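Comment thread on ticket #2218

A.B. wrote:
> Attaching the input chain for the structure job we discussed in standup.
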Amino acid sequence: MNLHQLQERNQELSILNAMAQDLNSSMTLEQALDTSLRQTVHLLHLKTGWIWLANAETGAIYLAAAYNLPPIFEKRPDLLTDTCYCIDKYLKENRDDATNISEITCSRLKDFVEGTEGLRFHASVPLIGRKEKIGIMNVLSEHSHQLSDNQLQLLHTIADMLSIAIERARLYESSQQLGVIQERNRLAREIHDTLAQGLGGIALKLETTQAFLEQEKIDKVTTLLAQSLDLTRSNLEEARRSVLDLRATPLQGHNLAEALDQLVQTIQASDQLVGQLSIIGTYQQLDHRKELGLYRMAQEAIRNIVKHTACKRYDISLTFEAQQVQLVIQDKGAGFDLQQPTEGFGLIGMRERVHLLQGQMEVESTLGVGTLLRVIIPLE
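C.D. wrote:
> Ran it. Output below, let me know if you need it in another format.
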C-alpha cells in the first residue's frame, strides 16, 4: 500500500469513526438518517443520495431521507413517490438474499437529461436488521462502476452501522410512546380516584338536597348545599392540578435533585406540609426515563401524605450507591393496615412505574405510626 492509499484509508477510517460517534449520539430516527446519508455521500465523493425505509407496521416503503437532490425532483416530485426497479427487487427478495450491493442504472432518472446534473447510476445498499429488512440507501453517481471495491465494502460497513442506529432509534421512539401511555394511564387512575369519586359525592348530596327541599327542611338543605359547594371547589382544584401535571415538564432545566427540592417547596407553600430532602452519596445523572419515573413516584407519595394522613412533616431521601439509586419517603401520619385490600390507584401506578424501570418497591405502614415507601432502581 503506497502513501496515497494509506492516507486515503486513514481518511476513510476517520470519517467512519466520526459517523459512528454521530450515530451513537443521534437518538431520533431523523437525525440518524440525515447524519449517515450526508456523511456517506461526502465520504464517497458523490453529490446525492436518498434512503427508503419499510414501515415497521405495514412493510410499505417510503422516502425517509434525501440529500442534495438534483433540480429534476423539484419539477417532478412524483419521481420520488413511485416505485422503482431496486425497490421492487428489494421487496421480492427474502432477508438473506437482500444483502448484496448493486450498481445499476437509476430507473427514476434514465429517461431524463435536463435537471439531473448528469446523474444516471446509483449503488443500492440494503439495510438489514436483526430479524427483518429495514430499507435501502441509494447513493448516485454520473458513471457506471464509479465506486471501487474498497468503497463498496465501505458501503457494507456503513449499511450495518446505519441499520443498528435505525433499530435503536425506533426502540427509543417506542419507549417514548410507552412513557406517554403510562402518563395517560396515571392521570386516568388519578381522575378515577379523585374527580370521579368527588363528583359522585356531589351528585349524592344534591339528590339528598332535592329530597329535603320537597320536605321543606330548609336547615338541612342549607347544610347540604354548603357541603356540595365545598366538594365542588375541591374537585375543581383537582382538575386544575391534573391539567397542570399534563402540561408540566418538571425536569426541564433541572436535574432530579433540583426538581425534588422544588416539589418539596411547592407542597410546603400550598399545603403547609413540611418536607426534609436529603441527598446521600455522590449525585449521578440518570437517564430521563429513570429521573422522571422517580420524580413522579415522589410526587404521588407526597400527595398521598397530603390526602390521607394527618401529619405535618415528612422526610424524603435520595441515595446514590454503586449499582443503584434509592428513594425513601417516610411520614409519621395515620398509617394503614397492609393486610387489608385498601391499596389505591396511586400505589398501583407507582408499582407499574417501578416494574417498567426494573426496580423494586417496598411499603411499610403501621396504623397510628406512619408509612415508609422505599423505591430501588438499578443504575444499569
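A.B. wrote:
> Thanks. Noting for the ticket: Residues 252-380 form a domain with the Heat Shock Protein 90 fold (CATH 3.30.565.10).
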